[in-house]
Specification:
201 residues, 0% strand, 70% helix, Tetracycline Repressor, domain 2, 2 domains, Arc Repressor Mutant, subunit A, mainly alpha
């Protein structure tokens, strides 16, 4: 008969994930051992295996959870028919920036440690990350209708936009003189005003 889970089982798993996230981000996935995680969690290595089958499983759940968080946050913005294309981009940029700042360690791992996952796990996380990217195509095509014809340009143009946001976690400070929403507005103004005149052929 299987041993029943303790009442705090899920809380302890969440704590391990949180600790591992910051260790992986600080030291790198490969340089962080299961023992390192266990020590930081004030538990034993064998106890850790009660919650996760491997270090790779911990990383997978970190990246999967962050990808799900991003998808669930960003997709409704792009599906909102009450927003103009420009408003969708601005709201998308603001929320992506806020997520990247709030979850700096998770975002760093998404950008740098995907290759540590198994091919199946990597494909699952990448598929989730692609959904908001592909959902941008419609709003971008409203700004530049040429994108409806030049479909091969849709992904590069969307990634140019996301790329303007993705590395802000390395330098943007919430304590600085510019707020995230003002920065997102500035970013979108620069991007849209350039995109509206861009030739795609």
């Amino acid at each position: 008969m299987a041993r029943p889970q303790a009442n705090d089982y899920h809380d302890k798993r969440a704590h391990i994930i949180d600790v591992a996230t910051h260790l992986f981000a600080q030291n790198g996935f490969h340089a962080t051992s299961v023992t390192d995680i266990a020590t930081a969690c004030s538990t034993s290595k064998s106890r850790l295996y009660h919650y996760f089958s491997s270090k790779e499983q911990v990383l997978y759940e970190i990246l999967l959870g962050h990808a799900q968080n991003l998808s669930q946050t960003l997709l409704p913005i792009l599906a909102d028919e009450d927003l103009s294309a420009a408003d969708k981009l601005e709201k998308f940029a603001t929320h992506l920036l806020l997520k990247n700042l709030k979850f700096r360690a998770n975002h760093k791992l998404i950008l740098g440690e995907m290759e540590a996952l198994s091919p199946k796990q990597r494909d699952e996380v990448a598929s989730l990350l692609r959904r908001p990217i592909e959902a941008l195509y419609g709003a971008l095509a409203e700004i530049n209708p040429n994108l409806k014809r030049e479909k091969a340009m849709q992904f590069p143009v969307a990634m140019m936009f996301i790329g303007m946001i993705n590395w802000t976690h390395t330098w943007f400070s919430e304590e600085g003189e510019i707020s995230p929403d003002i920065f997102a507005k500035l970013l979108c103004n620069i991007y849209i005003n350039g995109l509206s005149e861009a030739s795609l052929t």
